[in-house]
Amino acid sequence: MQKFKEYLKNTQHMVYESLIHAFLKKKTTHAYLISGTIGSPVLELAEFMAQSFVCSNKDENHMACEECDECNKIKNNSYIDYIFYKGEDLKRDNVDNIQREFNKSAVEKANIKVYVIHLIEKAPISSLNKLLKFLEEPSSDIIAIFTTYSMMSVLPTIVSRCQIINLRQFSQKELINAMLEVNADFEDAKLLAVISNDLEKNVKLVKSEEYKTAKEITKNCLNYMLTKPDYLIFYMLNQGLARLEEIKQFDLYLDMLQACFFAAMYYKASKEESYFFKDEIEKIATSNIDIYGCIMAILTAKQEMISNANKSLVYDKLFICLAGGDNSGKRSS
Ligand SMILES: [Zn+2]
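Above: the input record for the complex with zinc ion. Below: its predicted structure, written as tokens.
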């Protein structure tokens, strides 16, 4: 498997260079905020940095080997001097816990303690205010690493105390070219470039069975919407869903559907042909399907999936909308 370090070197060169500078010259600081678009590897970078602080087999640039015991323990969240929280789970008690644990001296031999809060924008304000007090009293052996998909939503008082690391965004052209280089079809390159800005992940995904399956199910859904909308619910609950869950790609399916409805909306406004699902999108754009309602239903489903809502309810609601049996997804004629 390719190391994360290689990914950084190949596709995030600025970040790679600045990390080498920091680790090699020992110019690290006590708090980092890693920012990137949705789907970009902010968490992977946070873990790699944590590994680089504690690795027992660092390379010539003082970066993590990603293979030793310490590196593996960070990855499995079993390193004693390491605490990981998702932003949405960060209760005030958890901040107390970080403070309490990190006031003790380090247990592992690297003698440094690292905590990661993934997607800090999702953390409750009261927890963040508590965390701020802790951040205000930096200690040389405690490192905080935060990640975000939305820099605008992070408390400015947190931002100002962190060194910012921005993962670079790729242009559509760069994303498409990278996929064409691995001989992907133009249709697939274009579809994935619309869905995600994660170049590395897209290149891996485009040739995979998971991608093919998600695409096939999306295509079937669009066709059922056009021909037998009532059957869509039956199809998804009896086949589509199980296959998507098996390959853990329900999110990809939602992203694909969303891309299609946006393309249909665009076609309606500009008559510009879509590069993917061309026939289906043209038909949807010229049908009386409520495109806007479908997009809203997909966005709602995405939001509910993040907030751990009852999954089967989320599924039912979405498929009913897509089949046109609900106000928000109904056909307008
Ligand atoms: Zn290591």
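Notes for the reader.
Residues 51, 55-57, 64-65, 67-68, 70-71 surround zinc ion (CB under 6 Å).
The chain has three domains: 4-166, 171-201, 208-329.
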